[in-house]
Amino acid sequence: MTVRQNLGELLNEVQYRGDSVVITKGGKPVAAIVDIALYENIRRMKDDFDRLCAELAAAGEQVSDGEAESLIGEAAAEARELTRKARASTRSAREAGKPLAR
Fold it and tell me: Which of 13, 72, 91, 92 has its CA 20 to 30 A from that of 102?
């Protein structure tokens, strides 16, 4: 109801002040009014994301199941090794009484 009554004012806030307006229905956000430049950037990012997803899917189709399992296994082994090293480093620092890096 507020949007209907104040649409012109809301559009001015968005256009001239760079604000954005979130529209709610029943207390839940359902839409937004944003500057056209931001909207175009969001659309471009969505299009890029969709294109990249399609490219990844096409590339994934060229990898055999065995090769995929091998790559996943290698990545998992590397992650486990990094975790092991981080835990050992934390344990060593604790034993030496040094503050832990964050």
Answer: 72
